[in-house]
Amino acid sequence: MLNTCSFSNFYKMKFLLQTFIIIILTAIIQILLPWWGLMIACFVVAFFAYSTRSISFFSSFLGVGILWIAYAYYVDTQTSSILTVKVAQIFKLPNTSYLILITGLVGGIAAGFSALTGHLFREFFTRKEFQD
Amino acid sequence: MKIIRFFLVALVTLSIFFILNFKWGATPPLGKFLDPFNGFWQNAESTTVAFNAEITSSKISDAVQIKFDERLVPHIFATNDYDLYFAQGFVTAQHRLWQMETQTMFASGRLAEILGPTLLSVDREQRRQGMVYGAENALKIAMADSVASLMLKAYSDGFNHYLNSLSYKDLPLEYKILDYKPEEWSPLKTCLLLKYMAKDLAGYDNDLKFTNAIKTFDKATFDLLYAENATAAEDPIIPEGTPWNFEAIPAPAPPSERVVDTFTNPRSTLTPPNPDNGSNNWAVSGAKTLSGKPILANDPHLGLNLPSVWYEIQLNNKGLNVYGASLPGAPGVIIGFNDSISWGVTNAGRYVKDWYKINFKDINKSEYKYENEWLKTRKVIEEIKIKGQPSFYDTVYYTIHGPVVYDQNFYHKNETFGYALRWLAHDPSLEILTFYYLNRAKNYDQYVDALKYYSCPAQNFVFASASGDIAMWIAGKFPVKWKDQGRFLMEGTQKENTWQTYIPFEHSPHVLNPPRNFVSSANQHPVDSTYPYNAFEGDFEYYRNRRINNVLRTKDSLSVEDFMSLQNDNFNLMASESLPIMLSHLEKENLSKVEREYYNILQQWDFINTKESLAAPVYQVLWDTLFVKIWDEINTSTIPLPYPEFFTTIKLIKNNPQHFIFNISETSARENAFDLITQSFKGAVKKIEKIKKEHSIENLAWSTFKATRIRHLLRPINAFHTDTLMVGGNKGIVNAIGTDHGPSWRMIVQLGEEIEAYGVYPGGQSGNPGSPYYDNFIDTWANGKYYNLVFLHNDKDKSKEIVFTQSINRP
Q1: Do B5 and A120 touch (CB under 8 A)?
Q2: Tens digit of pLDDT for each residue in B147-204?
Q3: Of B38, B45, B719, which has the smallest distance from its Cβ to A34's Cβ?
Q4: Which residue out of A64, A66, A75, A124 would a mutagenesis test of the B interface target, given it has the greatest number of B Cβ atoms within 10 Å?
Q5: Which of A51, A56, B635, B690 is such that its CA lies 20 to 30 A from the CA of B645?
Q6: Residue % of chain B over a pLDDT of 90
Q7: How far apart are CA B502 and CA B273, in angstroms?
Q8: Are the beta carbons of A83 and B9 separated by less than 8 Å?
Q9: Considering CB atoms only, which of B35, B718, B770 is closest to A35?
């Protein structure tokens, strides 16, 4: 029981750490590269971190999702939604919150699958240590 | 298993990349577009002005300061011309890059390249009319002139300096939505922009339709329907009685045998420019103003778009200090003022676009007949690139009469005939020098000297100086024509039909300090019939001009406020002249209760198109219905015919109500004008009632009916348009706000020791829909209000008004 608990805590820690790294690394790489830089970042992190498949996927999904949502939200509030209202209208969305959420979702999906690819690629080189 | 799993997931990931990195249909590439670090989010701006404050370029020779006032108008301080126009190119690109490029793409027939196959026919029209040919001719002569070439090169270098500093993140929003990249500016693009203006303003002709009309109607009917109306009563620009102090060049002889063809094949011709393109300008001398100083006003009426066609700017270097409206894409100020003078323009309509029938030797079109010879055509193959499709190739044959626009590949069927276009906009010209010298002019003589460079589109240049002069010159190059030359399609084989000489500049109609103490123009007849040259056009204004002159004649001690209210004047002169006739002939006996209510509304109307007016929409629908009913012959014609002018139509109703033209051929009864008025009135009532029911409104106000809206140049993107604006006025009214057309820049300048200047345009300095400066002038404009223009005397002046300074330095 105790063992399982610490084991899950370990996963939690690993998940949080990996999410954190994704946020930082993606933020840096996005300043230098086009949007797909985030896909490289997630691939690379998942490859080296080599945790579990679900940790790889979800830490990237969440990390990039949070990063994009936070940045989008910041822009939206800083600019009194002048542009975001118009772009939401182009996409036929009822309000800017949807636009921010969709932004996060798009970033998250691209990130998650890149990370999963990175993880599976690593499986060619290493015997699996943890099972999902 | 591992391998399959990896490849499956990798495939999904790659697919996600492809889906998000490329444009699908109208959807922008979602990954690129939504990325908050580089995508559209980076185009969102706050009210804080935040440009790159320090720019470095080795091209300039001295430091340049660009000071922005709180409306984001740049005030450029340089020490030489190159640096000045470099900075103008730079700062205009910074605000209007996408618009600048798109307008020149349109001019050069390249829209399909960015917007896809639906724009192909638009592109073909541009190419076949020789827009690029005209721009290239203008470029050649400009590059050979030291001043013009310096302006064009400097402006271009400034634009490109800005362009080359951009990464995807900084691109204007429209590039991100449509997913393409801007290209470098070049002097040719400025020439293209000026030809684009020429097409908008001097691109109107009805030759082919007139040709059909003269074949359709007998001579008497033709003359009645398409009367030239060039009498003093129409209040021409140059006041009647102004002497013509010159010996006119006699018009060349017309050919002994006039061949008139009928342009039967197509139902349509080239897309004409908006016939409402026009403007008002006037200047009043100190003798008639409250302050004793001359005051000048100008408001050009153009299609209202976002970003606006105008960009406000102040240019200052040694010996130059000018403020006004510039055209994004052209160096200098087009309408404005400096310390000593002010000037403004209205369009001087006159046909400078003539059509010639070309007789090819055979279907190869390599030779055509001229006099008794066979001349060789010059064959130009136009490659029109199309987004997502292979290029379209169009062959255009050039003759001494210009490009053959219509041939069997374009709106025409005959293989050995074609129609060539001779157009003044094809000619080499240096309009840019007019603005260079006007910007620097100190007095009347220098203003006149500047106008000597002006060719096309011809403009009525109003002028006022601090020293007290007011003047009006109609500037532009005009061929000397025999009567009716170019009014109809001409035979291309006859030399007599070509343009042979031009009216000397000194013979252009003009007036300096007239006894009435004011000058004005509003696209009406330039002169009365005593002018010794043919000055025909088929589309003159009859109402705005007379209203303006009536107000200016009857008032003394005019103030800037009077000028403001005149620019916003909603009096409908046409309604005041036509509605009483219509109402008096309306059969009143059998009106229903509802019809009687509408009759009373019209009866009580003061003829003012205020935004609240309930009568104005009724009059408008009544007139539109009546006009269509009267000209049923033209609506139902199998060949394109021109519509008679409103003015002529009203004159016919008044003077000739029993004329057979009022008969509707489809019915067995013999209708006269009164029958049509009664029918139209009943029809109008039904239509208004229907609109009210559809919108569930109790009253239909004029502004609701008119539904003025200012739209972004990308029409399908509704989100970038304004909402419906509650504004009065209409075309033909001094406050010429139509549905999507109207006063694109209102300016009033009081000259004197200290210049007092006011201005507003319906837009904002920034072309970015994500900027608070995109549309921030619109409410002021819609409410008929003005901004006090910040005119700085030097770079230390009025620093309180300046919110941000950008400087360009040498490395």
Answers
A1: yes
A2: 999 999 999 999 999 999 999 999 999 999 999 999 999 999 999 999 999 988 887 8
A3: B38
A4: A75
A5: B690
A6: 79
A7: 25
A8: no
A9: B35
What number of residues does chain B have? 811
Q: How far is residue B597's CA from residue B602's CA, in Å, rounded to a whole number? A: 9
List phi, psi (to 5°) of B143: -70, -20
**CA gap B707, B724 in Å, rounded:** 5
> A88 falls in which pLDDT band (50, 70, 90)?
very high
Closest CA–CA distance from residue B175 to any residue of chain A (Å): 14
Q: What is the pLDDT of residue B508?
A: 95
The verdict on a CB contact (< 8 Å) between B36 and A68 is yes
Is residue A129 over pLDDT 80?
no
DSSP E strand stretches across B285-401: 295-303, 305-306, 311-317, 320-326, 335-338, 341-347, 353-359, 367-370, 373-376, 378-386, 389-399
From the list B32, B718, B719, the residue facing A35 with the nearest CB is B32
Classify the C-alpha dihedral B99-B105-B106-B108 as positive or negative: positive
Q: What is the per-residue pLDDT for A1?
A: 43
**Cβ-Cβ contacts under 8 Å for B655 (sequence gap 6 or more):** none
Examine the pLDDT at A132 and tell me if it is beyond 50.
no
Residues of A in contact with B776 (CB under 8 A): none
Kindly state whether A32 is in contact with chain B, defined as any CB-CB distance less than 8 angstroms. Answer: no
The pLDDT mean for chain B works out to: 93
Q: b/e per residue, B222-233, with b = 16+ CB within 10 A?
A: eebbbebbbeee
From A36, A90, A110, residue closest to B717, measured CB to CB = A90
**Residue B492, H or E segment:** none
Residue B355 CB neighbour total at 10 angstroms:
27
Residues of A in contact with B20 (CB under 8 A): 35, 106, 110
Res A4: pLDDT: 53
Which segments in chain B show pLDDT lower than 70? 230-232, 258-268
Q: Sheet containing B490-491: give its strands across.
A: B378-386, B389-399, B402-406, B417-423, B353-359, B490-491
Q: Which residues pair with B470 in a beta bridge?
A: B464
DSSP B773: T
Q: CA-CA distance, B128 to B199, in Å (whole number)? A: 13
Q: Report chain A residues whose CB lies below 8 A from the CB of B35.
A: 30, 34-35, 68, 107
- Is residue B586 within 8 Å of residue B677, measured between CB atoms? yes
What b-and-e string marks burial along B133-152, b requiring 16 or more CB atoms within 10 Å of the CB?
bbbbbbbeebeeeeebbbbb
Residue B763, both tokens: 């837009």
Whether residues B44 and A83 touch (CB distance < 8 A) is answered with yes
By the CB < 8 Å criterion, does A83 face chain B?
A: yes
Q: How high is the ipTM of this complex? A: 0.93
pTM as predicted: 0.94
Structure-token pair, residue B731: 């075309």
Any CB–CB contact under 8 A between B24 and chain A? Answer: no
- Name every chain A residue with its beta carbon within 8 A of the beta carbon of B717: 90
pLDDT, tens digit, 9 for 90 and up, residues B295-354? 999 999 999 999 999 999 999 998 899 999 999 999 999 999 999 999 999 999 888 899
CA distance B301 to chain A (A): 28
∠ at Cα B718 (B18, B167), nearest 5°? 45
